[in-house]
Amino acid sequence: MSSNSHTDETETAEGAEREHLLPDSRQAHGADPALADDPFADPGLEPHEPRRQDIDERAARRSERTVAFLFTLSMLATVGFIASYVAIDIDRIVYIWPFGHTSGLNFALGLTLGLALFCIGAGAIHWARTLMSDEEVPEERHAVEATPEVKAHVLEEFRKGAAESQFGRRKLIRRTMYGALGLVPLSGLVLLRDLGPLPEDKLRHTAWREGSLIINDTTLQPLRPEDITVGSLTQAMPEGLDPHAEDFHSEIAKAAVMLVRLEPEDIRDERSAEWGHEGILCFSKICTHIGCPATLYEQQTHHALCPCHQSTFDLADGARVLFGPAGHPLPQLRITVNEDGYLQALGDFEEPPGPSFWERG
């Protein structure tokens, strides 16, 4: 006990003796008068000012304990992360103020992992700022290039090695080496085949077929011409798509359509009128910019607006682009009425719907 007290008293005395080495925060550092005449002169490095941990071992030990505490807390948080992953049910919902009801597992994993990473970073920063050396040491730069003598020696050695390898004389070796080096990268190209199935022409086709009934995407009932009134917009999809099927979203992303009914004299595009039925026109509702649904319809102007980036299409003129970043009109689907009086498609789109297909190839 007396030995520890003697040690503490010794450290206190040494710290008091070196207290004068600490910078006085009350002293203002004035500008160097030598720099007043030449503002581009090299000011050099300021004198190194020791930190309290540099002269006081007790302060250094406190910093060491702080760093160790942060690292220990990080370890405990990591253990908590593993324990949370194992113990908390994935379906458990808990109320946490002020976040409200949330997944208990996600909250615990995020909290523990965030704490673990933060403590490692905070401990490393505190270690660097209080215990590692902070003295700046200038180092003179030297020319990187070699001397003419060294250059000549290297070139001579290269010529000598090339001659001794007989690379110029052995044409068979040279040619086969070029062939091997040229072909070996092809093995890497073969591995690209394992990235997945080839796209083939899947992007060029949708679920629409000749005779496909056009059904309301809300009621899932087939549509008749009388269901589409002038000035209205109805969102639809082809018959046969199951909303619960695994591939439903990938299929509806290409096949979703909207139907509008215009007065026949308001349709300015002749082909568009021929592809419709009694003023009913069917267009892909997938914006040709980035794929948002362009279904904000203004019945007075017959314009369809995409809410994402305000691409505007004129449905009375073949859905051509009037404004916005979309580069192509909305594809139109040819429709007719079957024997039972229901609207049906006469085939697939003649051009692929969706965003930037032409840029994708």
UniProtKB/TrEMBL annotation:
Domain (Rieske) ranges: 254-344
**Where is composition skewed (Low complexity) in this entry?**
31-43
Membrane topology summary: Multi-pass membrane protein
Which residue ranges does UniProt annotate as crossing the membrane? 67-88, 108-128
Presence of keyword Transmembrane helix: yes
Q: Name one Pfam family in it.
A: Rieske
In what ranges is there compositional bias, type Basic and acidic residues?
15-29, 45-58
Q: Per UniProt, which keywords does this protein have?
A: 2Fe-2S, Cell membrane, Disulfide bond, Electron transport, Iron, Iron-sulfur, Membrane, Metal-binding, Oxidoreductase, Respiratory chain, Transmembrane, Transmembrane helix, Transport
Disordered as annotated region, ranges: 1-58
Q: Where in the cell is it found?
A: Cell membrane
Q: What is its main location?
A: membrane
Family note: Belongs to the Rieske iron-sulfur protein family.
Function according to Swiss-Prot or TrEMBL: Iron-sulfur subunit of the cytochrome bc1 complex, an essential component of the respiratory electron transport chain required for ATP synthesis. The bc1 complex catalyzes the oxidation of menaquinol and the reduction of cytochrome c in the respiratory chain. The bc1 complex operates through a Q-cycle mechanism that couples electron transfer to generation of the proton gradient that drives ATP synthesis.
The protein's name: Cytochrome bc1 complex Rieske iron-sulfur subunit
Source organism per entry reads Streptomyces boetiae
Lineage of the organism: Bacteria, Bacillati, Actinomycetota, Actinomycetes, Kitasatosporales
